[in-house]
Amino acid sequence: MNMQSARISIAATLLTAALLSIPACGKRVSADTDDVTITTRVKTALLNAPDVDGLGIDVSTNQRVVTLSGRVASTAARDRAIDIARDTAGVVEVRSTLEVGAGG
């Protein structure tokens, strides 16, 4: 009986540890998914904006902070791209290294 009680105790401990680790994993996956979703939403909005050449803009997201890089034709297009990113659900900050001018 002693050995069986020890096995049950070990099994219960392992099960508890496994169950406690699930929420932590879920939060990390959720954060990564949120970043991917935000990137997709921003890129889609940029591609659909007639006044922005979304093909020339790279979008990356880390912890809900969006970074825009690449080249646009005008300062108006740059400013519009930044506004689009800011207005996207879930974005907490927008950083831009967009360059204005003809492609290179």
Could you please describe the fold and organization of this structure?
With 104 residues, this protein is an alpha+beta fold. It has a domain at 29-100: Histidine-containing Protein, Chain: A. It has two helices and three strands, in the order H-E-E-H-E. The protein has a three-stranded mixed sheet with strand order 1-2-3. Strand 1 and strand 2 form a beta hairpin. It is elongated, with a radius of gyration of 23 Å. The model has no long low-confidence stretch (mean pLDDT 81).
Fill in the keyword field for this structure.
104 residues, alpha+beta, Histidine-containing Protein, Chain: A, three-stranded mixed sheet, 2 helices, elongated
In a few lines, what is going on in this structure?
With 104 residues, this protein is of the alpha+beta class. Helices cover 57% and strands 21% of the residues.
